[in-house]
Amino acid sequence: IKMEYKMDEQILQSAIDTYGSRSQHDMLLEEISELQKEICKYYRNVNNEPQIMEEMADVLIMIEQVRMMHKIKNEDIQKVIDFKLARLNGRVNEEIEKRHKTYCDLERGYGCVFDE
After folding, report:
1. What does R_g of the chain's alpha carbons equal in angstroms?
2. Could you give the angle at which helices 21-42 and 49-69 cross, rounded to 10 degrees?
3. Looking at CB atoms within 10 Å, which of 6, 63, 75, 80 has the fewest?
4. Among 35-39, 42-46, 81-85, 105-109, whose mean pLDDT is lowest?
5. Does residue 28 contact residue 55 with C-beta atoms inside 8 Å?
6. Which of 56, 38, 55, 34 is nearest to 47 (CA)?
């Protein structure tokens, strides 16, 4: 699954030019904080999916501005994402294997069969 969003780079560049690099970096941190707050509310059983989505959009917009300010290519980010996803996949598989072994240890006398 690819996350692809259309953003008007002229608008983003205008914001960078108007508010400045430092301000937009600070704004990214603020937007991340607001997303964090909404996620915390969700775990307190608050039905706030629209607010989570709104804050996610704000974070993505600010990330795009920071990418532009640092002249980072999407392809370069993709390479890092691919590396990190492969590493995550390895960790997840290790955790699944560890949980299977733990379950098997608990069920010593009964054998261990998993439906795969």
Report:
1. 21
2. 160
3. 6
4. 105-109
5. no
6. 38
The pLDDT of residue 113: 59
Contacts of residue 55, defined as CB under 8 A and 6 or more positions apart, other chains included, come to 31, 34, 35, 37, 38
Q: Is 2 left (phi over 0), alpha (psi -120 to 50) or beta?
A: beta
pLDDT band at 108 (very low <50, low <70, confident <90, very high): low
Q: Which two tokens stand for residue 84?
A: 């990190």
Cα angle value 75/76/80 (rounded, 5°):
115
Residue in the structure block whose two tokens are 């953003």: 7
Q: Is the pLDDT of residue 111 over 80?
A: no
CA atoms within 13 A on the CB side of 90: 6
pTM for the whole structure: 0.81
